[in-house]
Design a protein that fits this description.
- This protein is an alpha/beta fold and about 1000 residues long.
- Among the domains are: about 110 residues, no CATH class; about 210 residues, no CATH class; about 180 residues, no CATH class.
- Helices cover about 60% and strands about 5% of the residues.
- The strands form 3 sheets. Strands 1, 2, 3, 4, 5, 8, 9, 10, 11 and 12 form a 10-stranded mixed β-sheet that branches. A two-stranded antiparallel ribbon has the order 6-7. A two-stranded antiparallel ribbon has the order 13-14.
Length: about 1000
């Protein structure tokens, strides 16, 4: 592989399609070094390059590990602040370039797997040693999955029934994990596109290739001179813009391609099976609507978010319709046109005389162009009205604040619903078909309209349960009940709530002055009603209740919905699906009992939406990974979620209710993250039935959706996993002995985890001193505060995201593995022969294999030598003894866990069975070491600065003037190292 310097002087391709990451790495490293030499002073650039070479040239587990790390520490400690900042920026840039390269490699692999059709030609080409689909671990494409299902004699009718019911929902969120600025994301995309152009264009001239190489270096140099850190704390609407970027740039065009790929695969393997609906995979969003702990998400913000989403869709549709008008130049002199289309033109002529006068002469014999001109005008008027609504706010029709004259002219001419737009497009499509014509652009646009509508993504409302009970309490105080609401038992609350739900009289007076929080709680429901009136129920039909503990938590929301007119008890129709979020281990255990109480209420059952051909009621339930892990540790959290799914599905089946499970997965393993394909396969057999809803956390959006083929890969593998899990049951989840073992493992692991995290009085001080948690809270990366309670410093108030973030930065990654070794060891101490059973579980049980693989991957990223340096350097002297004890406990558990994981997998080293992942992690583990030491150095200086006046630093040149660095400068340097380590670890929290 030629270096960047060599490439500059030779007419060769930069990247070979078949080169793995390690070979392509030289390209990135030479580009990085070239930029540093041009942007930094010569001696500084050489020192930074020396740091990287020093860290990469040594093996972490070699005998010389301590020596070379000491050399790195010496270099780091010799740097002044300016050079430290340059080093932090340089390594951050390096890792982000590596991330781009990995995405390109992943994209290429997917393209190759998609284009390789040999597996379809003959049964002989099916690898006889490939694992059975029930034990499949590596992601598969539609083509391979349908081929293998056919070989397994899965009946076409069974597959078709599943496809018709399939409902996959991906919900974008904006939790405090998006550490990279949007500006930098744009630059990363441009770099990726330049690499792709150089790679795939085989017939470029020498001048064209040199021009692309020059652009690549120029883009990285511009990137170097761009501030990586947010200049200000992003607003909620900024976060909306960040999330919607992926729809605009990638997903809008990717979704029709996804449908095309499933169609092609079905044609090859199941030609008689009907395609799933256009919207079998659709999107939701919490960005702008998740108000749990975020006071910045007001009803006005949610309204503006909905208007903004519709604005983006209308812009897309206007552009696509304009292109169609250019394309569909069919003349009536040479082609027939359907009578229904001609009739619609007459109707439009009456409604839009100005358009007719302007376009009729030009398009008098081109009916499609004339029809599309009318469509464009309707879209424009819809856009005009949307802008008026966005500027006027959600209350305009309730308080008469808007001048209705402004919209009189468009009142009957704009598209009142997406169905009207769809109808016009269908007229065009059917007319073309009736004359034996097709138009792919029309089909593509119709698919996009079915998936995205005018709303783009559904906005889920999320709020914490006590906000509703507090509002009900204030209301009942006003009503002066004989027994105050907060003194009622759970059964009494249920009875009172159900009685009020069945009462026709209003409960909430219209002229009473409520407290600010209660008034806002009521306003959310009023805003939702207005949203649904304007946008249709599709824009906002789910209300997620975080920290759901009891049946009354759901009934309280339904009562408020009824009072605001979203629920009609006469017709037993609710336009709001109430979704409980069970987060803690105790709530997960209690979830079946809570839902059983609700399912026994005829009134509640009647309000559930009816779906599918069976027209059965549907209940959506959300399972939280973050808080259960923070509360009880990795094994306990995953096992209780697994058990809850089985119990809830059995309960739903007994009550003839369909279930859609909503998985609140984070980006990191400690919060439910990891490869989506394996996670879906690990769900209990029989619980999906083609339906799943998953959060896509802010930090993983770029890695999944920044490039078109990467987005398609993610969407395709999520879909194949759902199909595979739903059709190919392993029935292993019901094995009593295995369940008993897992229950014991979960309990032992939970006990050991809680003993350290919740019962050790020194742990909180340890976490605050030896991780950058306080500095993380100062990053301008989210509109939501890091703690649930302002000013609180206790562990319970800290959100799960910064909890995981802090442990990741300091290379402990403790939430993702601590307690696993002790739990496994406990079982083996009682019966050493159980190691063979664990190996069987790892081979055959998807859930256990997923558990072990996540722990193995996390352990491979842990670096206790670096972590020890954090403890020794940042820990206070008065806490040294207690901190040494804590580190000893962590170190012992790490070594025990690693040893037992290797015994179970039968490998000598971690990740031995996944060469690509091992290569990636190894590269990062080595090269990230200087950043860790840099971070410690800057954190130490920063924290010293808080205890005394600004300290001047002594430069190597004694004659150079001494300079005192401000706290803000030191904080900036520390935050840059946080940015770099996040890029190197490929996740934050």
């Amino acid at each position: 592989m030629e270096s960047f310097k060599q490439i500059e002087n030779n007419n060769v391709d930069l990247i070979s399609n078949n080169d793995p990451l390690d070979k392509n790495r030289l390209l990135i490293e030479d580009l990085w070094e070239s930029v540093l030499r041009e942007e930094c002073p010569e001696d500084q650039a050489e020192r930074l390059i020396q740091l990287k070479e020093l860290s990469y040239s040594k093996q972490i587990d070699s005998d010389s590990s301590k020596t070379f790390k000491n050399e790195i520490v010496d270099i780091v400690n010799s740097m002044d602040l300016a050079e430290s900042i340059a080093a932090a920026r340089a390594f951050s840039l390096y890792f982000q370039l590596v991330n781009i390269l990995e995405q390109r490699v992943e994209e290429d692999r997917y393209i190759q797997s998609f284009t390789n059709k040999n597996v379809q030609k003959s049964p002989d080409n099916l690898d006889p040693f490939a694992p059975a689909l029930a034990r499949q671990n590596a992601p598969v494409t539609f083509r391979e999955l349908f081929y293998r299902l056919r070989k397994l004699n899965v009946p076409p009718g069974k597959l078709e029934a599943l496809l018709q019911e399939m409902d996959i929902r991906l919900v974008f969120t904006a939790h405090p994990t998006e550490i990279v600025r949007h500006t930098i994301r744009h630059k990363q995309t441009r770099v990726a596109n330049l690499l792709k152009k150089i790679q795939v264009e085989q017939f470029l001239t020498k001048e064209e290739k040199n021009s692309l190489k020059t652009q690549l270096k120029e883009e990285v140099r511009l990137w170097w001179r761009t501030d990586e850190l947010h200049q200000f704390k992003p607003s909620v609407l900024d976060e909306v813009d960040y999330a919607l970027h992926y729809f605009q740039q990638v997903l809008f065009n990717a979704m029709p391609q996804l449908r095309g790929r499933i169609a092609e695969a079905l044609t090859e393997n199941y030609p008689d099976v009907q395609m799933p609906s256009e919207s079998f995979c659709n999107f939701g969003s919490w960005v702008g609507s998740d108000r749990d702990g975020n006071p910045s998400v007001t009803p006005e913000i949610t309204w503006r978010t909905a208007c903004y989403q519709r604005q983006l869709m209308l812009e897309r549709y206007i552009n696509a319709t304009s292109n169609l008008r250019d394309q569909l130049s069919v003349s009536m002199q040479w082609s027939q046109v359907s009578s229904s289309l001609l009739e619609s033109l007459e109707t439009d002529r009456v409604k839009f005389p100005e358009i007719y006068e302007a376009r009729a002469t030009r398009y008098r014999s081109e009916p499609y162009r004339l029809k599309l001109s009318y469509i464009l005008e309707k879209l424009r008027l819809t856009q005009e009205r949307n802008n008026l609504l966005a500027n006027s706010g959600w209350k305009f029709d309730l308080e008469g604040e808007m001048d209705n004259k402004n919209i009189d002219k468009v009142e009957n001419l704009y598209y009142k619903s997406v169905n009207e737009f769809t109808y016009d497009l269908e007229l065009i499509k059917n007319s073309l078909i009736s004359t034996d014509l097709t138009c792919e652009a029309v089909d593509t646009l119709l698919t996009q309209v079915h998936i995205f509508g005018f709303s783009l993504a559904s906005l889920d409302i999320r709020q914490e349960s006590t906000r509703h009970s507090d509002a009900i309490q204030e209301l009942t105080n006003y009503l002066d009940l004989s027994v105050p609401y907060d003194q009622m038992s759970e059964e009494e609350k249920i009875k009172w709530l159900v009685d009020e739900l069945n009462t026709k009289r209003p409960l909430i007076p219209s002229d009473f002055s409520w407290t600010k929080t209660t008034e806002e709680t009521f306003s959310v429901f009023k805003m939702v009603k207005r949203l649904q009136q304007e946008f249709g129920s599709r824009i906002c039909h789910s209300y997620v209740i975080s920290m759901s503990h009891s049946a009354s938590d759901l009934l309280e929301v339904l009562l408020l919905a009824k009072e605001m007119g979203i629920l009609d008890q006469n017709s037993q129709n609710s336009k709001l699906l109430v979704v409980p979020l069970f987060e803690t281990v105790e709530d997960l255990k209690r979830a079946p009992e809570v839902m059983e109480k609700l399912f026994k209420l005829d009134f509640y059952r009647s309000l559930l939406p009816k779906v599918g051909e069976s027209f059965k009621p549907l209940q959506e339930l959300m399972l939280g990974y973050s808080d259960s892990n923070k509360d009880s540790g990795f094994v306990s959290s995953n096992w209780e979620i697994h058990r809850a799914q089985i119990a809830l599905q059995n309960l739903a089946s007994r009550n003839d209710i369909l279930l859609r499970l909503f998985h609140g997965r984070g980006g990191s393993v400690g919060r439910g993250g990891g490869p989506a394909y394996q996670a879906i396969l690990a769900q209990p057999s029989g619980t999906l039935k083609g339906r799943i809803k998953i959060t896509e956390q802010g930090e993983v959006l770029a890695s999944k959706y920044s490039l078109p083929e990467l987005a398609l890969y993610n969407l395709e593998t999520v879909t194949t996993a759902v199909i595979q899990n739903s059709l190919v049951n392993n029935r292993l989840d019901a094995t009593p002995e295995w369940n008993q073992i897992m229950s014991r493992l979960a309990e032992t692991s939970r006990s050991h985890y809680r003993k350290l995290v919740h019962e050790n009085p020194d742990l909180l001080n340890f976490f605050q001193e030896v991780t950058p948690i306080e500095e993380i809270s100062k990053l301008q990366i989210s509109s939501r505060p890091a703690r649930r309670k302002k000013g609180a410093k206790d562990l319970s108030s800290l959100r799960a995201i910064p909890w995981v973030f802090g442990w990741t930065q300091s290379r402990f990654l403790l939430p993702s593995w601590f307690g696993v070794g002790t739990a496994l060891s406990s079982e083996l101490n009682s019966d050493p022969q159980q190691i063979e059973l664990f190996r069987v579980l790892h081979q055959r049980w998807p859930f256990f294999r997923m558990l072990i693989s996540k722990v193995e991957m996390t352990l491979s990223k842990v670096d206790l030598e670096v972590a020890r340096y954090y403890v020794d350097t940042l820990g206070s002297k008065e806490n040294k003894d207690s901190f040494d004890v804590i580190f000893g406990v962590i170190s012992k558990e790490y070594n025990l866990t690693k040893s037992l994981i290797l015994q179970i997998t039968g490998k000598n080293k971690l990740l031995e069975s996944d060469k690509d992942l091992k290569s990636s992690v190894s590269l990062r583990n080595k090269t990230i070491i200087p950043l860790g030491f840099l971070q410690v150095s800057l954190l130490r200086r920063l924290r010293d600065q808080t205890r005394q006046p600004p300290v001047s630093e002594c430069f190597i040149d004694k004659e150079e003037s001494r300079r005192a660095y401000s706290r803000s400068e030191l904080l900036r340097g520390a935050l840059l190292t946080i940015n770099g380590i996040a890029a190197g670890m490929r996740n934050t929290g």
